[in-house]
Amino acid sequence: FIAGNNGKDVYVHSMQIKEKTLNKDLHEGEEVLFDIVEKEKGPIAINVQKL
Question: For the CSD domain, which residue ranges apply (predicted)?
Answer without folding.
Answer: 1-50
